[in-house]
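Supplementary notes for students who missed Thursday's class. We covered one full example, reproduced here. Read the sequence, then the structure, then the short commentary at the end.
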Amino acid sequence: MKTDNFLSVTRESVAYFVIIFSFALLGFRLVQMQIIEHGAYDEKAANNAIKGIEQIPLRGVFYDRNMNVLVSNIPAYTVRITPAEYDTALNKLLEAVLDFEPGYIDKVLFGNRTYSKFVPIRIKRGIDFNAVSWLEENSANLRGVDLIVEMQRGYPAGIRGSHMFGYAKEISPALLEKGKVYYKPGDLIGSSGIEKAYENILRGKKGYTYVLVDSRRKEIGRFKNGTEDAPSIKGNDLVLGIDSDVQRVAEEELFGKNGSAVAIVPKTGEILAYASAPDYDLSAFSYSTSKEYLQKLYIDPDKPFFNRVNSSPKPPGSTFKVMEAIAALDMGVIDTDYIIVCHGGQVFGGRFFKCDAVHGPLNVIHAIERSCDVFFYNLIYKIGMDKWTEYARRFGFGQDTHIDIGEESPGFIPTGASYEKIYGENWPRSIMASLGIGQGEVNVTPIQLAQYVALLANDGVTYTPHIVKGYLTSDSSRKFMPFSYKEINVGINKDIFAIAKEGMFLVVNGSGTAAASKSADVQIAGKTGTAQNPHGKDHALFIGYAPADNPQIAVAVVVENVGFGATWAAPIAKKMIEAYLLKDKLKQREKNAEKKISNNLIGAAIAH
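Structure (token representation):
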């Protein structure tokens, strides 16, 4: 009996203890929730009653150097689904209306399953008028589906600029996971070109409109009559160095070809034109890009996505001869009295290296004018391998230019050490003869050539090549805020450049290789190049600037697999130069031609 009484007392004590402990814990939690963590729970309660509707800001617009709009914002409808309110039984109907493959909406919802069910998910941007009309008419039966007006990119200047402008696309889950705090699923983010490089400036600042909602998240009114709303702030507009007329000519001249063209202001490094061909239609990336169009671009053997300006290194051919002439003159191993006699070729290291003609005796100026290979075969041996490499790097080759958009290839400038790794200490010195005319292992990119010709035009001084000059503030003042870029100075006397530039002047205006591209209206100086291509026809190159006595524009053109630089590249450069320097004259010519045609038509009509 005593044992039973003891057990009974023990059970009763344990029960009392559990009850007292439970009430004590409950009391502590009430104190914690109502007093200690009062603010946090108030905030959660408010969140359950207040819904913040995100206001996406307009992206910044692109202007050219003359304040013509190149990239704008145009309104477009976007369909969104809020998973918490949406009935998946509507999937088949919506997929039919929006022209989706069966199962598409399920895939989108599944891909966004880790985010709040109350956050709207964008299903399709840029829907057509018929779809908008149907959705509006049936909105009462489409719970959880809504239409919003967003902005997509427009290109009013008729310039493609695909590799330059780039495009924005929906942020990927991978980028969201990397801590892109500003963004939510479905937001756009710059993916290439200027859109990517200047994303933080272009995107603006999101705003929020706050509304009251009931327990089912249905909107029942504005929160505090909108006094707590925060308007979105538009992204900053960018001012580019691009000249629309020059860009348009570059794109037109490269149409149907593989190649690139860059025009640059020698004194500032501002890029006037930036064209890579083939390219692609950016308007197709303004909203949901079709799989068929993407597939077409991906399988195209000419690789329209490939940016040839930054990333297509090739032998520079005879355009490199100007650099070698400057190096030899700067080192003092030659002067203007130094003569080499060209007999049509010469033997180096037991190999015969030919020239394209028998030029006879030439000094450095006329060797540039006539593009004599024999002269420059000999010259590289006077310069020496190590110095040749040093001067090539001083002019920006073998390294990134650090242009403000996109990734780039550094190209390749061989060194004595690199040949030792391949051939050993006694590597064949005959290799140097090919380097002397810009052939062999040396590879450079078109953007490097553009920087190079800017340095030649401006006596060895320029700035980092750049497309964007600065931005306009988004406030009412619209103040222009310029960006600063690094000065490049090769540290060579102007008198040395003057000698080489005399040769470049004669290339076009004397009896040189680009005489056929002489302009009647402006004096152009330049240098042609024809780079050997083991896989087909040679590549055509031309570098040039104008006016010859006061350079305002420098141009580099590369056309792949076509033949001679004088035939294919120089005429393109000439048209780009004239488009920049002779704007008014060319426009007047067009007006006169149109007037003449009109008068002829009127005359013919009267005659009949």
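Commentary. The chain has three domains: 2-36, 51-240, 246-280+307-471+485-584. Residues 2-36 form the longest helix (35 residues). If anything here is unclear, bring it to office hours.
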